[in-house]
């Protein structure tokens, strides 16, 4: 039986200028699951991620990771968050420095820091970028370096906010392969439904701060009526599959 790694119970959140961004959301995620978080703009996806990281404090309810309650503004090495915009995450003189920043602040030895940076560079296929300034990289390169900078801290849980945004096909495929090959617990928010379908077995659908559906990715994203109601598009591969099934029926 798989361990429950994330337990979200009756979670609510309101900003000063906007109430009920999240309303009574309860979710349990097992260790090793890859879960897509989908919904229209303003649904509450990023807010949920910021609460999971302890960057925001719940208005009501609680979040537990590995049985321990998430503490507001306290660093939790179990959780790694890849920002939607990599420029918000990369600020050091070089790629190596950006990837080493997290391990250095975890008070690891120089040997361990070097080992982690080299491992993250290899996983993200970024070894050739190590000495380059991060701000000189392409959008796809920045995204991979941002992911490497989180992987170097070796969190159990990886949170990706719109990882395929503004990516060319090769960079997008690199991220799909990376997520598919790791053994971590992954939470991925994206408007790229095909990306979610390729990387996630399970999908959580949020709309107007409420949990609408939680289940098999293909079942939820293949529900034309539900997806249209929530302002989302059914992945083309599922449309094509249903068309092929209807022709052979």
What is the number of domains? 2
The ordered H/E elements are EEEHEEEHHHEHEHEEHHH
Strand order of the largest sheet: 6-7-8-3-9-10
Give the overall average pLDDT.
Answer: 93
What's the total count of β strands? 10
What is the end-to-end distance? 38 Å
Which blocks of ≥5 consecutive residues have pLDDT under 50? none
Q: Kindly provide the radius of gyration, computed on alpha-carbon positions and rounded to a whole number of angstroms.
A: 19 Å
CATH class of the largest domain: Alpha Beta
CATH topology of the largest domain: Rossmann fold
Kindly state the percentage of residues in helix. 25-40%
Our count of helices gives 9
Q: Under the CATH scheme, which architecture of the largest domain would be assigned?
A: 3-Layer(aba) Sandwich
What does this entry look like structurally?
- The protein contains 9 helices and 10 strands.
- It has 249 residues and is an alpha/beta fold.
- It folds into 2 domains: 1-78 and 157-170 and 184-249, P-loop containing nucleotide triphosphate hydrolases (Rossmann fold), CATH 3.40.50; 85-154, no CATH class.
- The strands form 2 sheets. The protein has a 6-stranded mixed β-sheet, with helices on both faces. A 4-stranded antiparallel β-sheet has the order 2-1-4-5, with helices on one face.
- A hairpin with a 2-residue loop joins strand 4 (60-65) and strand 5.
């Amino acid at each position: 039986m798989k361990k429950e790694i994330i337990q979200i119970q009756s979670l609510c959140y309101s900003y000063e200028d906007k109430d009920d961004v999240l309303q009574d959301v309860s979710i349990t995620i097992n260790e090793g699951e890859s879960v897509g978080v989908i919904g229209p703009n303003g649904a509450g996806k990023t807010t949920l991620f910021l609460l999971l990281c302890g960057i925001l404090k719940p208005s009501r309810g609680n979040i537990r990771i590995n049985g321990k309650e998430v503490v507001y503004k306290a660093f939790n090495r179990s959780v790694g968050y890849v920002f939607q915009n990599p420029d918000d995450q990369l600020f050091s003189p070089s790629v190596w420095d950006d990837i080493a920043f997290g391990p250095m602040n975890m008070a690891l030895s120089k040997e361990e820091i070097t080992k982690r940076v080299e491992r993250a560079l290899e996983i993200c296929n970024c070894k050739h970028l190590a000495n380059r300034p991060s701000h000189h990289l392409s959008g796809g390169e920045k995204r991979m370096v941002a992911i490497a900078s989180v992987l170097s801290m070796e969190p159990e849980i990886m949170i990706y906010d719109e990882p395929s945004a503004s990516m060319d096909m090769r960079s997008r495929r690199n991220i799909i392969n990376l997520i598919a090959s790791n053994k971590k617990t992954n939470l991925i928010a994206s408007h790229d439904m095909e990306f979610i379908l390729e990387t996630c077995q399970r999908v959580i659908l949020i709309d107007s701060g409420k949990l609408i559906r939680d289940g098999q990715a293909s079942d939820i994203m293949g529900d034309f009526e539900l997806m249209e109601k929530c302002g989302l598009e059914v992945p083309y591969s599922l449309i094509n599959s249903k068309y092929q099934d209807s022709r052979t029926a």
